[in-house]
Amino acid sequence: MRLLLDTHVLLWWLDDPRQLSKAARKAVQDGANPVYVSAAVAWEIAIKKAIGKLDAPDNLEEALEASRFLHLPITIAHALAVRSLPGHHRDPFDRMLIAQALQEGLCLVTRDSEIAKYPVAQILA
Fold it and tell me: Which helix H or strand E contains 4, and what residues bound it?
């Protein structure tokens, strides 16, 4: 199973993985599951950190490498896929993650109940 981490899931993983559900921890820890982190997640973290709304590691790239997480860039196809999503969720970062998960066949690890309204594979974090 190929996983895509929502922003809160990544932050919980880096700070205290026990905040995640047992199923989410097991899936992320399983070395057979490639784990992706979207550029949208890094972008959201950078914005919120810069305005003082979030405490996150300064060395995010190093933390991702240490966890063996893979980078998922945002492509034109991902951006265009957002326009076809129903308007259930207003957060642009989450909408991008949903589009990426659908386009790339990834399972989104999240605790955001609004994402359940979309036809995307999920693991409840």
Answer: strand 3-5
For 88-122, give the DSSP string: T---HHHHHHHHHHHHHTPEEEE--GGGGGSS--E
Of 3, 7, 44, residue with least CA distance to 25: 3
CATH number where 93 lies? 3.40.50.1010
Q: Is the pTM of this model over 0.85?
A: yes
Look up the domain containing 79 and give its range: 3-124
- Mean per-residue pLDDT pooled into runs of 10, the chain (125 residues): 98 97 98 98 96 92 97 98 92 97 98 95 98
